[in-house]
Amino acid sequence: MRALALLILLAASPVMAADDTALGRDTFHGSCASCHGAEAKGGGPMSEILTVEVPDLTTISARNGGAFPWLKVIHIVDGRTGLRGHGDPMPVFGAVFTGDTSVADARDGTPVITSERVLAVVDYLAAIQVTP
Predict the structure, then answer these.
(1) Per-residue model confidence (pLDDT) at position 94
(2) How much of the chain, in percent, has pLDDT values that exceed 90?
(3) How many CB atoms sit inside 10 A of residue 90's CB?
(4) What is the pLDDT of residue 37?
(5) What's the Cα-to-Cα distance from 35 to each of 2, 22, 59, rounded to whole Å?
């Protein structure tokens, strides 16, 4: 009976999509909005002191032919692809995005290992894309 209860608990334990969206949104607001703005359109309070332009993150798909470059964005957020404005690692406070390793499948089925928070933020960004 305990084994059955454990199996039911394990089957029910994956985080639901709404929780992923909340984690991504909350992580973005706590870690990214100071530069990228609460609406992810750039112009956050710290953007005034930066020497690089802060992009509108709601138009990533529009700037990439209508497709959201999921893997590329993961690599930017988790630091594999550096950006001058982010320092090294990305973000400058990169410890926020460590310690919760997760695996997801890229669109081509390739496994991607990164932080659960990175995946949540990237999925949040994908969800807030605007169409021109």
Answers:
(1) 59
(2) 37
(3) 20
(4) 95
(5) 49, 20, 16
